[in-house]
Design goal:
single chain; 139 residues; mainly alpha; 9 helices; globular; HD domain-containing protein
Amino acid sequence: MSLYDLALSIAQEAHEGQVDKAGVDYINHPVYVASLVDGEEEKAAALLHDVIEDSDFHLSDLLNRGIPNDVLIAVSILTKDKNLSYQEYLSRVKSNELAKKVKLADLQHNSDLSRIINPTTSDFERVSKYEKAIEYLSA
């Protein structure tokens, strides 16, 4: 089984029954983010980027399933820590090239308001926040 297929199967299991803000199956988000990056490790990290945060999976579960260390580190960095400010989180992401590439793709997809039928003020504020994050990570 390829690393992509392994990561996809884990992501599908982790996000089963979840939907995004538009009510669409959540797995579509990590699959789309993976389509925006290159290389097997980048695609695996993209597929897994929300697994720890949004499911009962732990990094040890990913390790036990055969996910390589570089991908585990990126996923760990991409998993928000409630003890860090958003800026501290972005600084951590920026320090790891793999995590940074995935986060930029994630922010790009999350900024696409065409996915939401009737965007609200909070949606536009969130996109503004994401645009600043993209600028910071790209600098």
